């Protein structure tokens, strides 16, 4: 059976793993073997048949080797107006000579941190790809923000990806922030060339009490990029975590984002836009686990789908029995611009506490014809009027990005896309 | 300027306009009155180019051009302005950006240079006075959370900004208190000239005390069944629409 073959092939990848973190790797390998690569029947990957996609496009399930990245490439890739620090990667490998020395922040390779509790946040048994990464990642980056540090300059994680033989890139991050620390990350990948590659990324974030972590990501890779990411964080007492995910391109992209609200008065925010055309397929699976009373989660994802693109949204809110006085809000709104575009949206609420405020809603629609006519009746060209309305639709999420240069950059990309394509 | 001949229009297979004839010349004010549901807004929407309505017969010539062939935005640039009965709220689209885009697209079409930010603001300030609209309103999203009166004022403000040749005001008076009505009418009157024309759609005579029409037409069941001067409006005010309905019905049975 082909899926079995695929599983065997990934075993090959697993065998290339370094010797460190052997307990964590062994555990992950076993976990992977019991899960296998998700195929069409897998509930969690029902609308995103990643197994098939990998079989068709990833000819060589081997680690993609790093390639040369020059400082010119780095400079020309940094978006306009950015003033912050920079960590550069080539096919997932950290390039210290092109990266900033970040004041007040410890940055080192994961391989230098032998006692790191790899996989204790993004647990391998939850997802086959998290398991594969944990079992076979070459190395990754450890970033630590000390207690009470307020890191004012954002940190841009700039990854250059290119695989000529359709190989596998496995970035891995461990990010920790001491009590009261504040820091902003911007995660951006640049595709070089149009060849397929498979990025299988894991980010574990461990925040202390009263931390303020922001994680912004722009996914604008080539139309043949395949990516699965598992991002998971523990949010402690009085702490806040905010993620904004902007997806504009890719072949098949699957984002697993999980927030564990572990302390009272903690807050988790998940925002996203997927603005897709061609055959891009973006799947956002989010999960927020309310384990304690008096925590809040907010979620807003907006999708604009043109051509034959496909969006998947699955938002799980889990409110445990002890988590009284939970506030949980979730909203997913979609506009389909073509008859061939598809959206599968599913809120998944599991509420075991009785004194909670939870609301969720999802909408799927077309452009508001009355609004469109109103704008046209004032002399505005139809294409531009559509662009204005779609931009307004996306704006509600864009404004959640507090880092101005990055917001302006995303804003420009979105406006360009809306002005030309729709 | 505007010549409507035997205009028929339907929506979802139901005929709403059943042979409208109307001639409007530059400098004139025409009032179109009629009971609810008689087709006034339909006529206004068809003239502005709303696609839901299907024109099944007749023609509309505007400044020598076949209006029905033009896209809504081209009609607007040619000088047709519709003040909506129910202005649409558009969250996320700033009033100012919207207007600047509109004004400049209209100007470009008319062979005028685009206004830069400074000139645009100057024009806005000047026109804002006309309808006594608050700057605060214009820093918000288009019509979002505006009161009924504010929306109507905003319509006339947009009209002032776009400098149309034919303005169609659809029930701009409904829901306004006397003060607001006076402000809105005053704005309309100041914009009047011998080069442009106004069609005032209303079912209350009250507005016509402020915007004095040259002609009054009664629209009923998709046809103009009676035309006259402003005295006709007063007569309607006094006697209601029933006598017109009776006249139409008895004419139909003869
Ligand atoms: N979108 C629509 N769908 C179906 N019927 C409509 C629609 N718009 C208007 N109508 C019908 O057309 C008739 C005329 O409506 P309208 O033009 O709004 O009248 P008025 O403005 O004179 O009150 C009414 O009977 C109304 O129910
Ligand atoms: Mg009406």
Give the amount of beta strand of chain B, in percent.
25-35%
Main sheet: strands, sense, barrel of chain B: 6 strands, mixed
Helix-strand category of chain B:
alpha/beta
Could you tell me the number of beta strands of chain B? 12
Instruction: Return residue spans of chain B where pLDDT drops below 50 for at least 5 consecutive residues.
Output: none
> CATH H level of chain B: which superfamily?
P-loop containing nucleotide triphosphate hydrolases
Largest sheet of chain A: 10 strands, mixed
Number of domains of chain B: 1
Distance between the termini of chain B: 36 Å
What oligomeric state is this?
heterodimer
* Structural class category of chain A: alpha/beta
Computed over alpha carbons, the radius of gyration of chain B is 18 Å
- As residue ranges, the low-confidence spans of chain A are none
Share of helix among residues of chain A? 10-25%
Question: Helix share of residues of chain B?
Answer: 25-40%
Task: Work out the radius of gyration of chain A.
Answer: 21 Å
Please, what is the average pLDDT of chain B? Answer: 92
Assign the CATH architecture of chain B: 3-Layer(aba) Sandwich
Domain SUF system FeS cluster assembly SufBD core (chain A): 164-393
InterPro entries (chain A): Fe-S_cluster_assembly_SufBD, SUF_FeS_clus_asmbl_SufBD_core, SUF_FeS_clus_asmbl_SufBD_sf, SUF_FeS_clus_asmbl_SufD, SufBD_N
Family (chain A): Belongs to the iron-sulfur cluster assembly SufBD family.
Pfam family, one (chain A): SUFBD_core
